[in-house]
Write a structure and sequence with these properties.
4 helices, 251 residues, mainly beta, Jelly Rolls, 2 domains
Length: 251
């Protein structure tokens, strides 16, 4: 499985739930690349085309975290992606929807084809090398497991391992840093287990989460999340902030 080169106006972070994945970026996808193993997380810089593919020998799954409710107003595709699609009868509308002319689909009245980015627009896009991207945008699973042995590790945030203010913060929690004490956040929280089963408890309810599950916890709802089984346990916790969703923070 390969995802074609595209970009968003806001943050796009991924962690690998299963499999082995190659992430690549740049105008032609050759500016840089990184191989991600299970549990690794990549906060991809905004303003660059990116793609990814499963390079493992089996089924793979990655979990995405996006800044904002609409990914900044849509997706921007590298020109060659739109051109290649057209060669196969697929037309991308300016509304972001794909139409298959081989199935007699056509653009609706009033909807024009998605325009290609101009050479001037493309020239403004950076082409960061792997050496420039990895130190500030990639965190490895076993490093996070070690860092979160006593308290949750701040992975993405103003003072995180990966310093950014994308409209959310990401914490990494292990068995050793989980707490049975209930706590609430002023903004919505999303829980995404990486390893093990986790029990979420709040006044009046409980839920059990497994790897691949996602749970949205409403703002101001006091809750706890702890492992519900023995063995390796890890979880990514995403909490919205008051920061506007936008370009990668340069502070």
């Amino acid at each position: 499985m390969t995802n074609s080169l595209h970009d968003h106006h806001t943050a796009e972070a991924f962690f690998v739930l299963s499999g082995k994945w190659r992430f690549f970026w740049g105008r032609w996808g050759d500016a840089g690349e990184v191989t991600m193993e299970e549990g690794d997380i990549f906060n991809i810089p905004t303003g660059i085309f990116r793609g990814f593919e499963n390079i493992g020998t089996d089924y793979g799954m990655i979990m995405a975290i996006l800044g904002g409710d609409d990914a900044g107003g849509g997706v921007m595709w590298a020109p060659q992606v739109i051109e290649n699609a057209a060669e196969h009868g697929l037309i991308l509308g300016e509304n972001g929807k794909l139409y298959d002319t081989k199935r007699q689909q056509k653009l609706p009245d009033g909807v024009a084809p998605m325009p290609l980015m101009s050479d001037e627009e493309l020239a403004k896009r950076p082409e960061p090398t792997t050496a420039e991207v990895l130190p500030n945008h990639v965190a490895r699973y076993w490093d996070l497991m070690a860092l979160a042995d006593k308290k949750p590790a701040k992975v993405i945030g103003e003072n995180g391992i990966l310093r950014d203010k994308p409209g959310f913060e990401v914490d990494f929690i292990t068995r050793g840093s989980a707490s049975e004490a209930k706590a609430a956040a002023k903004y919505p929280t999303v829980l995404m287990p990486m390893r093990g089963h986790w029990c979420v408890t709040w006044d009046g309810g409980t839920a059990t989460l497994a790897p691949g599950d996602t749970m949205s916890v409403p703002e101001n709802l006091a809750h706890s999340v702890v492992p519900s089984m023995t063995g390796e346990a890890s979880l990514y916790r995403i909490v919205a902030t008051g920061d506007p969703a936008g370009l990668t923070w340069k502070g």
